[in-house]
Amino acid sequence: MATKTERAEAIRWIQAQMADYGLTMEELEAAGCFDPTPAPPQPPTPRPVCYRNAAGQSWDGQGEMPDWLRRAVNAGQNVEFFRIG
After folding, report:
1. Which residues of 59-78 are buried (b: 16+ CB within 10 A; e: fewer)?
2. Cα separation values, 65 from 23, 49, 61, Å
3. 72 touches 53 (CB < 8 A)
4. For site-directed labelling of 2, which of 10, 26, 50, 61 has its Cα 20 to 30 A away?
5. Domain extents in the chain
C-alpha cells in the first residue's frame, strides 16, 4: 500500500500531466477514466398477493404462513378459501 508521501507525489504528477496536456476533470470523466456512479439500490418488487381474508390481511404464499391464516386453517377452514385470482 502506498504511503502518504507516495500518494501525494502521485497526485502532484497527475496534476502536472493534466496541466501539460490541458486536461480537465470533465474531459477525463467523458473519456471513461472513472468508474460510473452506481445507481441507488432499488427496493424489492413486492410479490403479488395470493391469499386475503375479509379483514384485508394478505399473504404472498412465501415463507411461513401468517397467524391469521394458520388460525383459520386450524379452525377447519380450507386455505384455498382465501386464495385470490
Report:
1. beeeeeeeebbeebeeeeee
2. 61, 13, 7
3. yes
4. 26
5. 1-39, 51-82
What is the pTM assigned to this prediction?
A: 0.49
Single-letter amino acid code for the residue at 71: R
pLDDT tens by residue, 13-55: 999 999 999 999 999 989 988 888 888 999 989 889 999 999 9
SS3 58: strand
Interacting residues of 81 by C-beta distance below 8 A, sequence separation 6+: 72
Which residues contact residue 60 at a Cβ distance below 8 angstroms, ignoring those fewer than 6 apart?
A: 46, 47, 48, 49, 50
pLDDT in tens, 62-84: 999 999 999 999 999 999 999 99
Per the CB < 8 A criterion, the answer to whether 28 and 34 are in contact is yes
Backbone angles phi, psi at 83, to 5 degrees: -70, 140
